[in-house]
Write a sequence for this structure.
């Protein structure tokens, strides 16, 4: 890929790193200073943003099918997240960053939250507005330029790993949240995916996708390359959240299964969910495939 640029560490700005994994022509590197992991080099901003318009662009007839599939896949995950939010705060102004087709926002709206969304994908935003009649802005969070101290709740599910400057995104989230407002976020737990990627290289039949990621020119891989460009661990995410001005960082265990799938895979997932619960309760070691946190401004 010709149009690429080098990055410094998104967490500590250090230039020194070592390559820890390569797949599909992309490098995952680890900062030698703070241990944060990130893609380096990365495609240029325009190319990264273009991926999302292409990914979500399909014919009008097909888009309903895509959204239905997405909603089914995410159904239990979103239910689980909403339950967690309800436990902390029953009503208020909620912003979903990277809201995609608006499926989570629709659910939150049905549960009486005052909702609003932002996403960089034109086709996804148009769908959220037309079909679900949601208040959604196309573009980045910074470009949306919300007032300071404005939202009670911000959700950002599986988004931070896509963003070129994740720390400044979290600082912007902190700015637009009210005092004591809450951020709920999820992102892949990188050490688990490093193990998974290595296992899948040995046993390719365990891979979730065969061929390309659906509707994209990219060969499927466990890391979601080149869509995912930041790779957090509980420790580095915690440091980034503290650096962005958050406090009270609570790690949560996602209780329900995220996707439907073949029986063997589901059996593996259920066993793993049980194992993560045991590790967390007995040893306070956090090993779910997804990091889920609730933090306060
Ligand atoms: Zn660093």
């Amino acid at each position: 890929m010709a149009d690429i640029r080098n990055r410094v560490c998104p967490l500590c700005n250090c230039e020194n790193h070592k390559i820890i994994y390569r797949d599909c022509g992309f490098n995952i590197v680890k900062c030698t200073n703070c241990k944060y992991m990130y893609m380096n080099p990365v495609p240029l901003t325009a190319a990264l943003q273009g991926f999302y318009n292409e990914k979500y662009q399909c014919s009008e007839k097909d888009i309903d099918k895509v959204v239905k599939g997405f909603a089914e896949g995410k159904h239990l995950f979103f239910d689980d997240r909403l339950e967690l939010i309800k436990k902390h705060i029953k009503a208020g102004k909620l912003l979903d960053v990277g809201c995609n087709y608006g499926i989570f926002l629709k659910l939150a709206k049905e549960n009486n939250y005052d909702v609003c969304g932002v996403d960089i994908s034109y086709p996804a935003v148009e769908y959220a507005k037309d079909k679900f009649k949601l208040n959604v802005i196309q573009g980045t969070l910074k470009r949306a330029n919300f007032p300071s101290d404005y939202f009670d709740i911000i959700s950002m599910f599986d988004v931070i790993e896509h963003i070129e400057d994740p720390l400044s995104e979290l600082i912007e989230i902190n700015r637009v949240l009210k005092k004591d407002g809450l951020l709920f976020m999820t992102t892949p737990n990188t050490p688990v995916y490093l193990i998974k990627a290595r296992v899948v290289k040995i046993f390719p039949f365990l891979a979730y996708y065969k061929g390309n990621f659906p509707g994209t020119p990219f060969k499927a891989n466990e890391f979601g390359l080149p869509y995912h460009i930041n790779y957090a661990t509980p420790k580095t995410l915690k440091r980034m959240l503290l650096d962005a001005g958050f406090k009270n960082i609570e790690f949560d265990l996602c209780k329900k299964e995220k996707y439907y799938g073949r029986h063997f895979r589901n059996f593996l997932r259920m066993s793993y969910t049980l194992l993560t619960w045991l590790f967390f309760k007995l040893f306070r070691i956090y090993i779910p495939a997804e990091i889920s946190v609730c933090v306060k401004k």
